């Protein structure tokens, strides 16, 4: 029994790493720009498809194509921000939601149109490789994603704390008018932040391919989970997103096992509502408010 | 007035496709107006309204299929259930403001969807339920579309006049106040919590009625189409486009968006799967970014600017 719990816990934490990666981008964007980006999942979808096509045509392993996919996603993010999101920053939240939902519809259906609805998988040698500790099985690709999630969080943290641009981003997120008065070019900050958030999702997409499959609406599932994680961790809080992601991964894993695989999403949605009601600033109370 | 024109239109049109389009438009308007009561007048944006729609659809259908209960009564039963469920949603969640409330409604509809799939023995799960054809007025099933169109028109008229009545009633003014500034409204002594709840209950009841009606029209229901986030968004879309917070807004929005959607689906979707949604999404994004106040207010703005010059 203990082994089952342990196994569940480990699978949960590892999957949680991926949720965390997807959510870090979202929380960064929300924290700095106060934009609810429903199309975030579609960026993940693009990253996954890109990884797939690179693997399919160029035979480059996802863990390497990561370094190609991530910058491309950064650029896509920058362009999206400059031409679409820029108009939404001052808008009402419902406008943002509708606009980003529209974007998400366009993107998901463009994927459907160009690439059809088939599920795409990347078959790698290490795809089903596992590490075994006594009776516990750790999936190798999931372990890698998890470690990457931690690494990225640490890197982001250092970036935000010690670089000029990072401080500019933090300043904008705290008080955008004040930052502007201090000489920060907040338009550039917005563009960069959106690109950065998209890049994070790009990493997540590349890392997901060995263990998941790509299809046009894959974004939807992950974006809902990402919103749960973001609220749990506190909107705008990156370490919160990391821990929130891990927590959701574990909750999903345990509820999948102890309650029912079909209900595991329902469980974390219920937790989501409970957290919203009692601690909307996030479990760790670290949100912008 | 316009309603009489529409009624005559329905009686004159023979083409099944045009009738179908009219039915889609009328139900779209009814749904949009129902949503508008809490979303537009109250300013509480719910993206979980599919929950109430689905409750209506499943309640009346299950009662109809298992007990032979006439959908006219089943509709009311569904409506009552939807009201109770709306209380479950509203009572805790109306303490939340803005985006947080919206996120909660999304989670709420998703949970209902998951539960509907889970309790397969009752709801048929993902396979859904097919309604066997049993014609006749009391079964709310007809061989041709004209009666459906009349009923849809009647539903739409009901919701429209209710909306106008609410807009000019005390509740309407309370909602308008709390939408502008909830704390200010409370300072004036308005029980904002109760106003929001009442608006939500009415909205849920009406949405559920449409859900029941549509289940009878399509004769097939399944969790994905009745409870999905896409549906919740589609419900509020005509309102957003036509002008949120007005009674005429959803009417305009639905007359524009619904035919566009259906025509795109029919003429483009076959060959080029997904293309119609791409176009639809682009239109949505453009309208939302450039005419966020809705077409009604935008048009009024143009007219009044012209009359001033």
Characterization of the model:
The complex is a heterodimer of chains A (289) and B (309). Chain A has helices at residues 2-33, 40-58, 62-83, 93-115, 140-162, 164-174, 176-181, 186-208, 218-233, 238-258, 264-278, and strands at 130-133, 136-139. In chain A, helix 1 crosses helix 9, helix 5 crosses helix 6 and helix 9 (218-233) packs across helix 10. Chain A is mainly α and 289 residues long. Chain A has a two-stranded antiparallel ribbon with strand order 1-2. Chain A is 73% helix and 3% strand. Chain A is globular and about 60 Å long. Chain A contains eleven helices and two strands. Chain B is an all-alpha fold. In chain B, helix 2 (16-39) packs antiparallel against helix 10 and helix 8 (170-180) crosses helix 10. The longest helix of chain B has 27 residues, at 192-218. Chain A binds chain B through residues 36, 84, 87-88, 91-95, 97-99, 101-106, 108-113, 116-117, 216, 220, 224, 227-228, 231, 260, 262-263, 265-266, 269-270, 272-273, 276-277, 280, and chain B through 45, 47, 92-93, 95-96, 98-100, 102-104, 106-108, 110-111, 114-115, 117-118, 229, 233, 236-237, 240, 244, 272-275, 277-278, 280-282, 284-285, 288-289, 292.
What would you say about this model in short?
The complex is a heterodimer of chains A (289) and B (309). Chain A is mainly alpha-helical and 289 residues long.
């Amino acid at each position: 029994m203990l082994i089952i719990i342990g196994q569940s816990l480990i699978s949960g934490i590892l999957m949680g790493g991926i949720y965390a990666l997807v959510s870090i981008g979202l929380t960064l964007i929300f924290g700095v720009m106060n934009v609810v980006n429903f199309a975030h999942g579609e960026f993940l979808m693009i990253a996954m498809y890109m990884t797939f096509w690179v693997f399919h045509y160029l035979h480059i392993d996802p863990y390497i194509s990561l370094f190609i996919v991530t910058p491309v996603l950064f650029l896509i993010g920058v362009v999206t921000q400059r031409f679409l999101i820029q108009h939404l920053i001052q808008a009402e939240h419902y406008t943002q939601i509708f606009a980003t939902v529209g974007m998400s519809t366009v993107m998901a259906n463009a994927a459907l149109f160009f690439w059809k609805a088939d599920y795409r998988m990347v078959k790698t040698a290490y795809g089903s490789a596992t590490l075994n500790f006594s009776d516990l099985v750790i999936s190798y690709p999931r372990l890698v994603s998890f470690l990457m999630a931690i690494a990225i969080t640490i890197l982001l943290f250092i970036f935000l704390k010690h670089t000029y641009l990072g401080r500019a981003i933090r300043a904008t997120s705290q008080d955008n008018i004040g930052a502007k008065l201090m000489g920060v070019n907040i338009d550039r900050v917005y563009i960069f932040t959106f690109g950065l958030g998209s890049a994070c999702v790009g990493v997540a997409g590349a890392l997901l391919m060995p263990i998941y499959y790509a299809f046009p609406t894959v974004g939807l599932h992950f974006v809902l989970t990402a919103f749960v994680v973001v609220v749990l961790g506190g909107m705008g809080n990156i370490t919160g997103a990391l821990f929130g992601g891990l927590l959701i991964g574990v909750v999903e894993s345990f509820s999948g096992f102890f309650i029912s695989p079909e209900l595991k999403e329902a469980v974390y949605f219920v937790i989501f509502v409970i957290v919203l009601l009692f601690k909307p600033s996030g479990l760790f109370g670290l949100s912008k408010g | 007035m316009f309603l009489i024109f529409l009624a005559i239109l329905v009686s004159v049109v023979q083409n099944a496709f045009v009738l179908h389009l009219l039915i889609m438009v009328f139900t779209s308007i009814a749904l949009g107006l129902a949503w508008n009561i809490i979303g537009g007048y109250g300013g509480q944006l719910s993206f979980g309204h599919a929950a109430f729609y689905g409750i209506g659809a499943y309640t009346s259908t299950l009662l109809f299929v298992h007990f032979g209960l006439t959908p006219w009564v089943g509709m009311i039963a569904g409506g009552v259930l939807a009201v109770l469920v709306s209380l479950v949603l509203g009572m805790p969640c109306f303490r939340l403001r803005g985006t947080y409330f919206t996120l909660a409604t999304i989670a709420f509809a998703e949970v209902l969807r998951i539960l509907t799939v889970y309790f397969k023995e009752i709801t048929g799960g993902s396979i859904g339920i097919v309604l066997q054809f049993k014609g006749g007025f009391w079964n709310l099933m007809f061989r041709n579309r004209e009666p459906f169109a009349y009923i849809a028109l009647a539903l739409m008229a009901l919701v429209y006049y209710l909306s106008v009545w609410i807009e000019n009633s005390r509740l309407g003014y309370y909602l308008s106040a709390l939408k502008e500034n909830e704390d200010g409204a409370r300072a004036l002594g308005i029980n904002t919590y109760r106003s929001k709840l009442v608006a939500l209950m009415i909205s849920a009841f009406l949405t559920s009625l449409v859900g029941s009606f549509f289940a009878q029209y399509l004769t097939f229901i399944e969790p994905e189409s009745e409870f999905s986030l896409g549906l919740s968004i589609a419900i509020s879309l005509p309102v957003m486009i036509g002008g949120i917070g007005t009674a005429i807004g959803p009417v305009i929005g639905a007359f524009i968006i619904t035919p566009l959607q259906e025509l795109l689906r029919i003429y483009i979707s076959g060959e080029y799967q997904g293309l119609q949604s791409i176009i639809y999404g682009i239109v949505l994004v453009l309208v939302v970014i450039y005419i966020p106040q809705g077409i009604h207010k935008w048009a009024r703005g143009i007219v009044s600017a012209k009359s001033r010059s």
